[in-house]
Specification:
Elements (H helix, E strand, L loop, with lengths): L1 H30 L3 E3 L2 E3 L1 H49 L5 H35 L10 H13 L4 E8 L2 H8 L1 H16 L6 E5 L5 E6 L7 H20 L2 E3 L2 E3 L3 E8 L6 H15 L7 E3 L2 H23 L3 E9 L5 E11 L5 E2 L1 H11 L2 H22 L4 E6 L1 H4 L4 H11 L7 E6 L7 H13 L3 E7 L6 H6 L4 E4 L1 H5 L5 H16 L3 E5 L4 H9 L4 E3 L9 H14 L1
Parallel strand pairs: 8-9, 11-13, 13-14, 14-15, 15-16, 16-17, 17-18
Antiparallel strand pairs: 1-2, 3-5, 3-8, 4-5, 6-7, 10-11, 10-18, 11-12
The structure holds guanosine-5'-monophosphate (G) (2 copies) and manganese (II) ion.
Manganese (II) ion binds next to loops.
């Protein structure tokens, strides 16, 4: 609006001056006498020539400012000033106007050239703008276009929903099948998307593999709950489209789409806040079962802030050695003898309140701090126990290792080097890994485990029964201990199926030449039943809670005394 007004005013001003110059020119021409400016004597035709050029500049400026309108006004002005000249020439046979006429023809051409030049530039500008609003791969509206659209909606005072639709298994697919394959997937999806938005919806592509849908809040539907349900259903339709199997390069693939949704203005006052809350929602629900379409709410951000604080705390604790280690004893079920200890880490917040270990371990795993935590724990556990194991050559000290850790190149070598540097005998260390290693690069895991076992380090499979172990993998992996997950032991006396399962794990362990340990044993009855079923080892509150190092040493000493 502002711009249009400015253009109009400029055209009026330019027209005014052009008219003035035209009038003055015709006056000067008709005067037919010389003008003296100081010592300079100018003929009227000389002055008219200068004025005509000034007018030409004004007319070209008018085309630049007013484009088509500018050109029309220019031509009208030229026509008005030329008609008397032509009349004079033809009716009065005064041919001295011919140079002026030639001048006029040149002006007409110049104005036209200027106009078409401007027009072309505008045309290319439009194409450039279109390209800048388009995702090059899929042809969908890109990030900028979507942001522009949202900005306009906010300025227009509209209410709307934004949904980010992302594909949980896209990165994995990209890694496994290559980027070209991933690009083909996105192109096919874009085809499904572009055709399916209806009036009041706007679709685009955000980041690498993220789609955006903006859905207008319906005017007639004022009930917020009903509206939310409608949006939920609509986004689920998009999800359904994405989930339809895709055939790319003769491979059928199934995607795992998920969506996060925010509402303007409820969930954020500007686009940045809305986007941040969408990202928070994605981070919060990522890998969470059943959370296919999730609406943002404040608790999402609160929890992320909370997790961020724990992460900061952990980060600091790693450099100030404030992670605290406790040790839970493991016993031989048949002889009742102490076998060793599982090392467990503990962390306290700034006020000294303890942070739940499963929580901070999970946060560490998400942020990759887990590698540092695991290494810290390994180093500190063996430093603490190195003198103790020299006195007790059969004692086993076990540490937990995150599943991702073992597949990192050089991990086994790192463990062996650490043991050597600390003069800790390899056979006294046990590495506990969870069954989730089976979901990762098994070849690397197997190589690392083989290397450790060849060097007498023990390897235990933790939380057994809850993960993905397949018999074929299990038979290939050199484990010396299976740890039956606490959840089975908990349900031992209430569920026959769980009892059968425990018996099965025990015999499976023995077939694999591994020992079997039951975790979380809290009662004498369970302990006795496990013994009867042939279970080898036990770890639980019944036989000993996780304890401080000094207490653990006392337990060891007492054992020795009782033998
Ligand atoms: O005892 P507790 O509540 O600490 O254990 C919670 C979970 O955290 C268990 O599954 C345990 O294996 C895991 N855990 C405890 N300490 C560590 C550690 O240092 N590294 C890893 N990767 N996991 C640990
Ligand atoms: O997954 P992992 O085996 O590393 O987990 C060991 C966890 O189980 C630790 O958090 C430990 O404190 C806990 N734990 C060990 N024994 C018992 C028990 O008998 N009862 C309960 N409730 N927790 C136990
Ligand atoms: Mn464990």
């Amino acid at each position: 609006m502002q711009k249009q007004l400015k253009t109009r005013i400029s055209i009026i001003v330019l027209t005014f001056f052009a008219v003035v110059v035209t009038i003055v020119t015709s006056r000067v021409t008709s005067m037919a006498r010389n003008l003296e400016v100081g010592r300079l004597v100018l003929s009227s035709s000389q002055i008219a020539g200068v004025l005509t050029n000034i007018r030409l500049i004004l007319l070209v400026a008018m085309v630049l400012v007013g484009k088509k309108t500018g050109m029309i006004i220019s031509y009208v002005l030229i026509l008005i000033s030329t008609v008397p000249m032509i009349i004079q020439m033809f009716f009065l046979q005064k041919w001295d106007g011919i140079p002026g006429l030639a001048n006029t023809v040149c002006s007409v051409i110049l104005i036209y050239v200027t106009y078409s030049f401007i027009n072309n530039i505008n045309h290319y500008n439009k194409i450039l703008h279109l390209l800048s609003q388009q995702d090059p791969l899929t042809g969908m509206h890109n990030l900028t276009a979507v942001r522009d659209y949202i900005d306009k909606r906010i300025k227009a005072g509209k209410e709307f929903y934004i949904s980010f639709l992302y594909i949980e298994n896209f990165a994995q697919l990209n890694d496994m099948m290559g980027r070209d394959f991933g690009n083909s997937v996105l192109k096919s999806l874009a085809g499904r998307f572009i055709g399916s938005t209806v009036e009041g919806e706007y679709g685009g592509k955000n980041g690498d593999s993220e789609f955006v849908i903006v859905i207008d809040s319906s005017k007639e539907n004022k009930d917020p709950v009903a509206e939310r349900l409608e949006v939920d259903a609509r986004v689920k339709q998009f999800i359904k489209q994405v989930k339809r199997p895709l055939i790319i390069e003769n491979t059928e693939i199934t995607l795992e789409p998920r969506a996060a949704i925010v509402r303007y203005p409820d969930d954020g006052g500007d686009i940045n806040e809305l986007y941040r809350h969408l990202d928070d929602t994605i981070a919060h629900y990522r890998n969470q079962a059943g959370a296919e379409v999730s609406f943002y709410d404040a608790s999402v951000t609160n929890e992320l802030t909370e997790n961020g604080k724990i992460e900061d705390r952990l980060f600091k604790a790693l450099s100030t050695d404030e992670i605290h280690l406790v040790f839970q004893p493991q016993y031989n079920l048949r002889t009742g003898k102490l076998r060793g200890f599982e090392t467990l880490s503990r962390l306290e917040d700034e006020e000294g309140k303890s942070i739940r270990p499963d929580k901070f371990i999970q946060i560490a795993e998400k942020s990759n701090l887990i590698f540092r935590v695991d290494n810290w724990v390994l180093i500190h556990a063996i430093k603490r126990f190195k003198d103790v194991v020299k006195e007790n050559p059969d004692l086993v000290i076990s540490v937990n290792i995150s599943a991702n850790h073992l597949q990192k190149p050089g991990y086994a070598e790192f463990v062996l080097r650490t043991l050597k540097e600390n003069e800790f005998p390899n056979k006294n260390l046990e590495i506990e890994i969870t069954e989730t290693v089976f979901a990762s690069a098994i070849e690397n895991v197997k190589a690392a485990m083989d290397k450790l076992r060849q060097n007498e380090v023990k390897v235990a499979l933790d939380d057994f029964g809850t993960g993905y172990a397949s018999l074929s993998y299990l038979s290939q992996l050199p484990v010396n201990l299976l740890k039956i997950d606490k959840s089975f032991v908990d349900k031992m006396h209430t569920s026959c199926e769980d009892m059968d399962f425990i018996k099965l794990i025990i015999s499976m362990g023995h077939v694999l030449h591994a020992e079997v340990l039951a975790e979380g044993v809290e009662s004498v009855e369970k302990k006795e039943a496990l013994l009867e079923w042939g279970c080898d080892l036990v770890q639980g509150y019944l036989t000993g809670k996780p304890m401080e190092f000094e207490k653990a040493v006392e337990v060891i000493e007492k054992e020795k005394g009782s033998v």
